User: Fold this.
Amino acid sequence: MESIVLWGLGFCTAFALLLSKQLHSGILLFGLFGLFVAGAYLFMGAPDVSFTSMALGAALTTFVYLVAIKKAGVLHIYYVPTDSMIFSHPTIGLTGFEYELLRGFAAQQHLELAFHEMDSYQDLAEKPPQTGVFACGMTYERANRSFSKQHLLVSYLPTRIFLLPNGEQTDLVRLKSLLVRNKMKNVEPKPLGEDTYVFVFEPSSVDLGKNFDTYIKQVQNTDEWNALVKRHLG
Amino acid sequence: MKRIAPVLALVSLSILFILIVREMNMPESTFRPDYVTHLLEESGALNSVTAIYLNYRVYDTLFEITVFFIAAFGVSLFLGNLPITHEEVEENDANLFLIQEGLSFRLRTASNIIFLLAQLFGIYVMITGHLGPGGGFVGGVISGTGILVLVGSKKLEEVRDDFQKLHIHTAERFIIFAIPFIGILGYLTTGTVYGRFLPLGEAGTIFSGAVIPIMNVLIGFKVLAGTWSILYHFVQHRGSI
Assistant:
């Protein structure tokens, strides 16, 4: 009877393991599964097998996996330096709103980040790299125009579009950086409409992009999020 | 010293293999379907599972040990040539288990205690394998995992250096020699491979079951060294495949 209950619990754990999205919880569930199976063997009158199952299935494998996920993978990020979003600060190095978002996401998914600087937006749009995420404070409109349908666009922050006197369109962040650098004086940009900032996920990283979407929905409008927005975007 | 052990191991394994083949060709085979009923008086071990795998089915165990030895050897041979993953030294040096800040002190303290408990329990399971559930294989795995937990509080290289001071790997080489040697000794004294050349003792005490406790401890240390060797190489070269 006890063994049936334990097998049932083991089955439930295995099912939860299939559905788990976090590596850490997956490993802990795997250890729990080993524990239930060991308990089931114990009640079936095989304490020797139970001991072995406990030592190998529950303890050793869990530890090996915990060590292994220290380096689960590398997320390549191709960025075009954009003020406030992702840029190289002379003293603290790479920083910005998008940078911090990606940091948080990578910490949650146990990924390491590798940053690759691109010279211009044209480079990124014409010859998109094969793997990873592209970030440069892109707006949805612009990204939708430049990248193919297979790319996944994850929007994370609303913005406004302005029309500059010289006929160019720009968004809030770029407008702010123009104003700060005093390149525009005494001109009133005309508001054109609303848009959102997006991250572009390359076709083979679409699953990662979906996870990122969930992550954004989790952190959006929390205190930390508001503090981040305040610090980087004002 | 290092070269003697493999030669001895090879010689003793060859002699044992010849003896086994000779025994198998004997017309009167050792197959006895009724051995479960005479288990206690013949082997002296309370745990019938241990009695079977270290007495009647000792060849199976012997080849299991050989398989384990070859697996550990293969891991160290194959991974030894790969580049080593260097730890980026961050806020603390014990960042093997993705330690968050503030957790390190607790982990440092706990891993030392868990290490000691695991070693004690592993050795207990090894030497009482003939009395209750357990045995050399399980005890070795428990001890080996316990050493890996220690890596939570120390650097991997420090643990390895401490481990090398104990000369476990030298001991491991002699165990490879000792396990077949017991079989040969049994043949020389009683005429059958792994014959009972020690007294049975009183069933239920530590010193009972003839060679079974000795075999359990030897297998335990063999598995301990093998598990540690495999884990060490996996940790050292993680992410490089």
Summary: Chain A touches chain B at residues 47-48, 50-52, 55-56, 59-60, 63-64, 66-71, 110 (CB under 8 Å). The radius of gyration of chain A is 24 Å. The mean pLDDT of chain A is 76. The first strand of chain A starts at residue 74 and ends at 79.
